[in-house]
Amino acid sequence: MTTLAFFGIVGWIVYFLFFEEIATMSTNIHSVETTKSVNANQVTQIEVHTDSADIHITPTNNQEQIVATLTGKISDTYKDRFAIHMLPSGDKLQINIKEKKKWAIGFHINNVQVELQIPQKIYETLTLKTNSGSIHGDSLQIKKLVAVTNTGDVRIKNISGKTINLQTKQGDVALTSAVATNTKLDTESGNIIADFIQNENIHISSISGDIKLREIKGSSVIQTKSGDTLFKQRELTNPISIYSKSGDTEIAATNVPAVQFHVISKSGTYNVQGSSLQYQEQTPHRLRASAGENGPVIKIESDSGNFLFH
Questions:
Q1: Where are the domains of the chain?
Q2: H-helix or E-strand containing 45?
Q3: How far does CA 165 lie from the centroid of its chain?
Q4: What beta strand segments (E) does 151-239 contain?
Q5: Most buried pick, 20, 69, 150, 229, via CB within 10 A?
Protein backbone atom coordinates (compact mmCIF):
# COMPACT_ATOMS: atom_id res chain seq x y z
CA MET A 1 0.00 0.00 0.00
CA THR A 2 1.43 3.38 -0.98
CA THR A 3 1.67 6.27 1.48
CA LEU A 4 -0.90 8.24 -0.53
CA ALA A 5 -3.40 5.39 -0.41
CA PHE A 6 -2.86 4.95 3.34
CA PHE A 7 -3.55 8.59 4.12
CA GLY A 8 -6.54 8.47 1.79
CA ILE A 9 -8.09 5.63 3.78
CA VAL A 10 -7.34 7.40 7.09
CA GLY A 11 -8.95 10.56 5.74
CA TRP A 12 -12.15 8.71 4.80
CA ILE A 13 -12.32 7.14 8.27
CA VAL A 14 -11.95 10.52 9.99
CA TYR A 15 -14.49 12.05 7.58
CA PHE A 16 -17.00 9.28 8.35
CA LEU A 17 -16.54 9.55 12.14
CA PHE A 18 -16.80 13.33 12.00
CA PHE A 19 -20.11 13.48 10.17
CA GLU A 20 -21.50 10.45 11.95
CA GLU A 21 -20.88 12.25 15.23
CA ILE A 22 -22.69 15.35 13.97
CA ALA A 23 -25.64 13.28 12.79
CA THR A 24 -26.04 11.46 16.10
CA MET A 25 -24.97 13.93 18.78
CA SER A 26 -28.44 15.52 19.07
CA THR A 27 -29.94 12.13 19.92
CA ASN A 28 -27.22 11.13 22.40
CA ILE A 29 -27.79 13.81 25.03
CA HIS A 30 -28.07 12.72 28.64
CA SER A 31 -29.78 14.77 31.38
CA VAL A 32 -27.76 15.15 34.57
CA GLU A 33 -29.45 15.65 37.94
CA THR A 34 -27.72 14.66 41.15
CA THR A 35 -28.40 16.09 44.62
CA LYS A 36 -26.50 15.81 47.88
CA SER A 37 -26.93 17.63 51.18
CA VAL A 38 -25.27 18.07 54.57
CA ASN A 39 -26.31 19.49 57.92
CA ALA A 40 -25.84 23.26 57.96
CA ASN A 41 -25.93 23.98 61.70
CA GLN A 42 -22.20 24.46 62.29
CA VAL A 43 -21.12 25.61 58.84
CA THR A 44 -19.77 29.17 58.58
CA GLN A 45 -17.11 28.57 55.90
CA ILE A 46 -17.80 27.09 52.46
CA GLU A 47 -15.43 26.22 49.60
CA VAL A 48 -16.62 25.08 46.17
CA HIS A 49 -14.26 23.74 43.48
CA THR A 50 -15.14 22.69 39.92
CA ASP A 51 -13.28 22.22 36.67
CA SER A 52 -15.84 23.11 33.97
CA ALA A 53 -19.18 23.18 35.80
CA ASP A 54 -20.80 26.57 36.46
CA ILE A 55 -21.48 27.57 40.05
CA HIS A 56 -24.82 29.12 41.09
CA ILE A 57 -25.30 30.00 44.74
CA THR A 58 -28.45 31.37 46.39
CA PRO A 59 -29.87 31.51 49.94
CA THR A 60 -32.84 29.42 51.00
CA ASN A 61 -35.34 29.35 53.86
CA ASN A 62 -34.24 25.81 54.70
CA GLN A 63 -32.10 26.44 57.77
CA GLU A 64 -31.18 22.79 58.34
CA GLN A 65 -29.48 21.72 55.12
CA ILE A 66 -26.95 22.88 52.58
CA VAL A 67 -28.03 21.37 49.27
CA ALA A 68 -25.86 20.91 46.16
CA THR A 69 -27.60 19.91 42.94
CA LEU A 70 -25.76 19.05 39.75
CA THR A 71 -27.91 19.66 36.67
CA GLY A 72 -27.50 20.05 32.93
CA LYS A 73 -27.11 18.29 29.61
CA ILE A 74 -24.20 16.13 28.56
CA SER A 75 -23.27 13.69 25.81
CA ASP A 76 -23.78 10.03 26.67
CA THR A 77 -20.04 9.56 26.34
CA TYR A 78 -19.61 11.67 29.49
CA LYS A 79 -22.80 10.82 31.38
CA ASP A 80 -20.86 9.32 34.31
CA ARG A 81 -18.17 11.96 34.30
CA PHE A 82 -19.43 14.22 37.12
CA ALA A 83 -19.85 13.50 40.83
CA ILE A 84 -20.52 15.65 43.92
CA HIS A 85 -18.27 15.29 46.96
CA MET A 86 -19.33 17.17 50.13
CA LEU A 87 -16.71 17.11 52.88
CA PRO A 88 -17.80 18.74 56.18
CA SER A 89 -15.22 19.35 58.89
CA GLY A 90 -16.32 21.34 61.94
CA ASP A 91 -17.51 24.76 60.77
CA LYS A 92 -16.01 24.28 57.28
CA LEU A 93 -17.63 22.60 54.28
CA GLN A 94 -15.73 21.74 51.12
CA ILE A 95 -17.67 20.85 47.98
CA ASN A 96 -15.81 19.35 45.02
CA ILE A 97 -17.37 18.58 41.67
CA LYS A 98 -15.19 15.72 40.50
CA GLU A 99 -14.80 15.22 36.76
CA LYS A 100 -13.45 11.98 35.34
CA LYS A 101 -11.14 12.70 32.44
CA LYS A 102 -12.24 11.03 29.21
CA TRP A 103 -11.12 11.35 25.61
CA ALA A 104 -13.22 10.79 22.52
CA ILE A 105 -13.41 11.86 18.88
CA GLY A 106 -16.08 14.30 17.71
CA PHE A 107 -18.40 16.89 19.24
CA HIS A 108 -19.69 16.47 22.78
CA ILE A 109 -22.16 18.49 24.80
CA ASN A 110 -20.96 19.50 28.26
CA ASN A 111 -23.30 22.03 29.86
CA VAL A 112 -23.40 21.28 33.57
CA GLN A 113 -23.84 23.52 36.61
CA VAL A 114 -23.91 23.05 40.36
CA GLU A 115 -26.71 24.86 42.17
CA LEU A 116 -25.82 25.47 45.80
CA GLN A 117 -28.59 26.45 48.21
CA ILE A 118 -27.41 27.72 51.58
CA PRO A 119 -29.42 28.84 54.65
CA GLN A 120 -29.92 32.58 55.06
CA LYS A 121 -27.33 33.70 57.61
CA ILE A 122 -24.01 35.52 57.80
CA TYR A 123 -21.07 33.34 56.72
CA GLU A 124 -17.43 33.94 57.57
CA THR A 125 -16.00 32.94 54.19
CA LEU A 126 -17.27 31.74 50.83
CA THR A 127 -14.68 30.61 48.30
CA LEU A 128 -15.81 29.70 44.77
CA LYS A 129 -13.23 28.44 42.27
CA THR A 130 -13.60 26.96 38.79
CA ASN A 131 -11.35 26.59 35.78
CA SER A 132 -13.65 27.21 32.79
CA GLY A 133 -17.05 27.55 34.45
CA SER A 134 -18.89 30.76 35.34
CA ILE A 135 -19.87 31.90 38.84
CA HIS A 136 -23.23 33.41 39.82
CA GLY A 137 -24.40 34.56 43.26
CA ASP A 138 -27.42 36.48 44.55
CA SER A 139 -28.60 37.82 47.93
CA LEU A 140 -25.60 36.77 50.01
CA GLN A 141 -24.29 37.81 53.43
CA ILE A 142 -20.61 36.90 53.50
CA LYS A 143 -17.84 38.49 55.52
CA LYS A 144 -15.30 37.40 52.90
CA LEU A 145 -16.22 36.34 49.37
CA VAL A 146 -13.61 35.06 46.90
CA ALA A 147 -14.75 34.02 43.41
CA VAL A 148 -12.10 32.95 40.88
CA THR A 149 -12.34 31.51 37.36
CA ASN A 150 -9.99 31.40 34.38
CA THR A 151 -12.26 31.64 31.33
CA GLY A 152 -15.76 32.00 32.80
CA ASP A 153 -17.72 35.05 33.93
CA VAL A 154 -18.27 36.17 37.53
CA ARG A 155 -21.65 37.79 38.27
CA ILE A 156 -22.62 38.70 41.84
CA LYS A 157 -25.53 40.87 42.99
CA ASN A 158 -27.21 41.91 46.23
CA ILE A 159 -24.35 41.10 48.58
CA SER A 160 -23.15 42.51 51.89
CA GLY A 161 -19.88 41.77 53.68
CA LYS A 162 -16.42 43.04 54.51
CA THR A 163 -14.29 41.76 51.62
CA ILE A 164 -15.35 41.01 48.04
CA ASN A 165 -12.75 39.61 45.63
CA LEU A 166 -13.88 38.68 42.10
CA GLN A 167 -11.30 37.48 39.57
CA THR A 168 -11.27 36.06 36.04
CA LYS A 169 -8.74 36.02 33.22
CA GLN A 170 -10.79 35.92 30.01
CA GLY A 171 -14.33 36.36 31.29
CA ASP A 172 -16.41 39.36 32.39
CA VAL A 173 -16.96 40.57 35.96
CA ALA A 174 -20.27 42.10 37.07
CA LEU A 175 -21.07 43.32 40.59
CA THR A 176 -24.42 44.95 41.37
CA SER A 177 -25.85 46.30 44.64
CA ALA A 178 -23.05 45.54 47.08
CA VAL A 179 -22.13 46.83 50.54
CA ALA A 180 -18.59 46.06 51.66
CA THR A 181 -15.45 47.46 53.26
CA ASN A 182 -12.97 46.41 50.57
CA THR A 183 -13.79 45.35 47.02
CA LYS A 184 -11.47 43.99 44.32
CA LEU A 185 -12.54 43.29 40.74
CA ASP A 186 -9.95 41.88 38.36
CA THR A 187 -9.89 40.59 34.77
CA GLU A 188 -7.37 40.45 31.94
CA SER A 189 -9.33 40.51 28.67
CA GLY A 190 -12.92 40.66 29.90
CA ASN A 191 -15.09 43.67 30.75
CA ILE A 192 -15.98 44.90 34.23
CA ILE A 193 -19.35 46.37 35.22
CA ALA A 194 -20.07 47.62 38.74
CA ASP A 195 -23.29 49.37 39.80
CA PHE A 196 -24.47 50.78 43.14
CA ILE A 197 -21.50 49.80 45.29
CA GLN A 198 -21.04 51.15 48.82
CA ASN A 199 -17.61 50.50 50.25
CA GLU A 200 -14.60 52.19 51.78
CA ASN A 201 -12.12 51.09 49.11
CA ILE A 202 -12.57 49.54 45.67
CA HIS A 203 -9.75 48.42 43.38
CA ILE A 204 -10.56 47.56 39.75
CA SER A 205 -8.09 46.32 37.14
CA SER A 206 -8.26 45.14 33.54
CA ILE A 207 -5.67 44.75 30.82
CA SER A 208 -7.69 45.04 27.59
CA GLY A 209 -11.30 44.98 28.74
CA ASP A 210 -13.52 48.03 29.25
CA ILE A 211 -14.65 49.21 32.69
CA LYS A 212 -18.11 50.67 33.31
CA LEU A 213 -18.95 52.02 36.77
CA ARG A 214 -22.06 53.67 38.14
CA GLU A 215 -22.81 55.05 41.60
CA ILE A 216 -19.68 53.92 43.42
CA LYS A 217 -19.31 55.23 46.98
CA GLY A 218 -15.85 54.99 48.47
CA SER A 219 -12.27 55.58 47.40
CA SER A 220 -11.78 54.11 43.89
CA VAL A 221 -8.52 52.98 42.24
CA ILE A 222 -8.79 51.84 38.61
CA GLN A 223 -6.01 50.38 36.46
CA THR A 224 -6.20 49.46 32.78
CA LYS A 225 -3.85 49.21 29.82
CA SER A 226 -5.88 49.46 26.61
CA GLY A 227 -9.44 49.30 27.91
CA ASP A 228 -11.67 52.37 28.26
CA THR A 229 -13.20 53.52 31.55
CA LEU A 230 -16.65 55.08 31.97
CA PHE A 231 -17.58 56.38 35.43
CA LYS A 232 -21.09 57.76 36.07
CA GLN A 233 -22.04 59.44 39.37
CA ARG A 234 -24.91 61.61 40.51
CA GLU A 235 -22.57 63.35 42.96
CA LEU A 236 -18.82 63.26 43.42
CA THR A 237 -17.98 62.75 47.09
CA ASN A 238 -15.01 60.36 47.11
CA PRO A 239 -11.53 60.33 45.53
CA ILE A 240 -10.99 58.54 42.19
CA SER A 241 -7.60 57.45 40.81
CA ILE A 242 -7.43 56.07 37.26
CA TYR A 243 -4.24 54.79 35.65
CA SER A 244 -4.29 53.95 31.93
CA LYS A 245 -1.80 53.41 29.13
CA SER A 246 -3.84 53.82 25.94
CA GLY A 247 -7.40 53.54 27.17
CA ASP A 248 -9.68 56.59 27.34
CA THR A 249 -11.40 57.77 30.52
CA GLU A 250 -14.78 59.47 30.84
CA ILE A 251 -16.35 60.68 34.09
CA ALA A 252 -19.90 62.04 34.10
CA ALA A 253 -21.38 63.66 37.23
CA THR A 254 -24.67 65.47 37.79
CA ASN A 255 -23.83 67.36 40.99
CA VAL A 256 -20.28 68.58 41.65
CA PRO A 257 -20.21 71.01 44.61
CA ALA A 258 -16.44 70.68 44.96
CA VAL A 259 -13.71 68.77 43.11
CA GLN A 260 -9.96 68.75 42.47
CA PHE A 261 -8.38 67.54 39.21
CA HIS A 262 -4.84 66.19 38.85
CA VAL A 263 -4.41 65.09 35.21
CA ILE A 264 -1.13 63.90 33.67
CA SER A 265 -0.73 62.37 30.19
CA LYS A 266 2.25 61.86 27.90
CA SER A 267 0.38 62.32 24.62
CA GLY A 268 -3.32 62.12 25.45
CA THR A 269 -5.70 65.07 25.59
CA TYR A 270 -8.15 66.23 28.28
CA ASN A 271 -11.49 68.02 28.22
CA VAL A 272 -12.76 69.13 31.63
CA GLN A 273 -16.05 70.99 31.53
CA GLY A 274 -16.96 73.27 34.42
CA SER A 275 -17.64 77.01 34.59
CA SER A 276 -16.28 77.57 38.12
CA LEU A 277 -12.91 75.86 37.73
CA GLN A 278 -9.81 77.59 39.02
CA TYR A 279 -6.62 76.52 37.25
CA GLN A 280 -3.33 76.02 39.08
CA GLU A 281 -1.61 74.41 36.07
CA GLN A 282 -2.81 74.05 32.50
CA THR A 283 -0.65 72.70 29.65
CA PRO A 284 -1.55 70.44 26.68
CA HIS A 285 -0.89 67.31 28.77
CA ARG A 286 -1.12 68.44 32.38
CA LEU A 287 -3.96 69.90 34.41
CA ARG A 288 -4.34 70.97 38.02
CA ALA A 289 -7.67 72.64 38.70
CA SER A 290 -10.31 72.82 41.40
CA ALA A 291 -13.84 74.00 42.11
CA GLY A 292 -15.27 74.70 45.55
CA GLU A 293 -13.41 73.87 48.74
CA ASN A 294 -11.84 70.57 49.87
CA GLY A 295 -13.44 68.53 47.11
CA PRO A 296 -12.45 64.92 46.33
CA VAL A 297 -9.32 64.48 44.22
CA ILE A 298 -9.81 63.08 40.71
CA LYS A 299 -6.40 61.77 39.65
CA ILE A 300 -5.91 60.68 36.03
CA GLU A 301 -2.61 59.33 34.68
CA SER A 302 -2.18 57.94 31.16
CA ASP A 303 0.35 57.46 28.38
CA SER A 304 -1.81 58.13 25.32
CA GLY A 305 -5.36 57.85 26.63
CA ASN A 306 -7.73 60.81 26.57
CA PHE A 307 -9.80 62.18 29.50
CA LEU A 308 -13.28 63.71 29.41
CA PHE A 309 -15.16 65.12 32.42
CA HIS A 310 -18.67 66.52 32.13
A1: 28-121, 236-310
A2: strand 45-50
A3: 9
A4: 154-160, 163-168, 173-179, 182-187, 192-206, 211-224, 229-235
A5: 229
Q: Amino acid letter at 79?
A: K
Sign of the dihedral through C-alpha 116, 122, 127, 132: positive
Contact 265, 303 (CB under 8 A): yes
What is the pTM (predicted TM-score) of this model? Answer: 0.86
d(CA 247, CA 206): 11
Cα distance between residue 182 and residue 187, in whole Å? 17
pLDDT in tens, 119-162: 999 999 999 999 999 999 999 999 999 999 999 999 999 999 99
* CA-atom Rg of the chain in angstroms: 25
Residues 6+ apart with CB under 8 A from 209: 172, 187, 188, 189, 190, 191, 192, 224, 227
Q: How far is CA 154 from its chain centroid?
A: 3
79 Cβ neighbours under 8 A, 6+ residues apart: 30, 32
Virtual CA dihedral for 245, 248, 249, 252, nearest 10 degrees?
Answer: 180
Report the alpha-carbon distance of residue 175 to residue 43 in Å, rounded: 25
